[in-house]
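Query protein
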Amino acid sequence: MSAAPVAAPAPRAAAALLPGKPEEIEPLLEQLPRDINTAWRALASRWKLPAQAGAGDGDPCLAAAAQELLCYRTSQLSLPLLRQLGRPGILTLQADNSAPPVYALLVGLSEQTATLQVGPTLHRVRLVALGRLWRGDFATYWRAPPGYSADLPDGSSGPVIDRLTTQLAQIDGAPAPVAGAVPQQLDPALRARVRAFQRAQGLKPDGQPGPMTFMQLERAIGGQAPSLQTDPL
């Protein structure tokens, strides 16, 4: 079922970067939310979701789902994969195991620094300092293909597999499959192509097209997901 028409979001003021050299990250921790839903709502503005999708006390992931976006969380992301993924997201930061976690909105990565958005202000911190507090927990929105489900079994077909084969063909520089000519299936040959792409992206080469694989496919073909700022600010 198609989503209802989306009203244009209200204009938002651009976040401002504090001038000068990179800041110390520890003083920022007190300013960061301890409720991840607050961070999800801040991230919603990066996806230009309607104001009502990023406000209030409701579940922001349910609000995003109404706009055909899903929430994705992982606890196993490395900095190279974070850089490769290249999209804004939420970092879970924790000073030590006894301290409560806080949630930072990552909006930029350069060679040596990360840019975090706190309210209307951008803060640039050194990656080595971020590494003392971040242990791989990351969350972001993603747009799943129509018909997507976790753990797609062998023989799966339909729009999700059509999208997968079309995107892989774009990356391979091959002609896209002709729609309706031959039904596309998740067979051993297609899983082998998925594994090759996963290896090239630094992902686990399991042949299973999951969220990270589809997000990397979208980035590789120049999709419309928001991107991290990569130049030094």
